[in-house]
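Please go through the sequence line and token line underneath and see whether the fold suits the sequence. See right below:
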Amino acid sequence: MTEDTDAWEMVQKKANQFVLDGAPFYINGFNTYWLMVFAADQSTRGKVTEVFQQASSVGLTVCRTWAFNDGQWRALQKSPSVYDEEVFKALDFVVSEAKKYKIRLILSLVNNWDAYGGKPQYVKWGKAAGLNLTNDDDFFAHPTLKSYYKAHVKTVLNRVNTITNVTYKNDPTIFAWELMNEPRCVSDSSGNTLQSWIEEMAVYVKSIDAKHLVEIGLEGFYGPSSPDRAQFNPNSYATQVGTDFIRNHQSLGVDFASVHIYADSWVSQTISDVHLQFTKSWIEAHIEDAERYLGMPVVFSEFGVSTKDPGYNSTYRDTLISTVYKTLLNSTKQGGSGGGSLLWQVFPEGTDYMDDGYAIVLSKSRSTANIISLHSKRIATFNSQCSWKCHWGCRKKNQLESFLDHDEL
């Protein structure tokens, strides 16, 4: 049977931009990490459809979600290379449902943290198999643990969707593969251990699937290879977690850069204007790196503010989101490396028990929904009116710029 993708094109990268059908493809997106787990239960499956429908209604085009759940409740991977077919069918549903709403997916393949199993679960599996492991960071170095991860990657990429009959590695619904959510290797602050792992795994993913884009999943901290950029880090600890933004992203097989933005975790929990200043300079520094050193797009793939923070109010959240969008738009208007951003995180109604403080329920947050919708319209206008070759040499520039700069709906 032939694979039907309804002539939906695969997103590609050309120099420092994403491209689709020869035109730039700047994105406005969101995170909802728990879609597979919700799809695995008939009583909550409808929430997957709801979140895609609501996100689509405000013009969001990319969703980042987990393609892993290791050894935990409702696990996809119950033990190394042993899968729960019902949970895999739930992931199939997520992919097929995303396509219905014209939303592309960034699928993350493992967690650095213990939520949904992650790196610590792989180490537990290794110990259960009799390996002499001393530290969760052995995940990055031990050959057996690396083979467990590779086997998972191979299984997911070669999965044939039971609903659409399209193999994941051939499905344009998938925007990109993410090697890991927020990798850190604190046991080696030189960054060499994590660098080797990234180099090995990016090439491994590409060896199975040369069509899709690949990104690492980094938070964006500057490391030892670029001491002059350390001034942009939120704190001194960020330099010592074994990640190295510029060096890591120069690895073969990595197509675009990822950065997270959490001033309320990294700078101080109490909300202040300092957070907004940090956010702006953090974005600008990474866009500059992506243009000057990397020659690739950069996606700010998690950003938000928690309702639990001291001093929080919804006006501040709107200001933070607007700050991210406006800073990115300055790059977009010039055809720059600021490839887009993904809110952390969009939830449908009735899922409050999953809320970590960052959930945005669009139907209950009209002002926020309006900000998101306006930004989506601006990006869609840019994408539709300027071909890649044009680079703003066209007469549409003035007309577009007035729309892109206008603050009202």
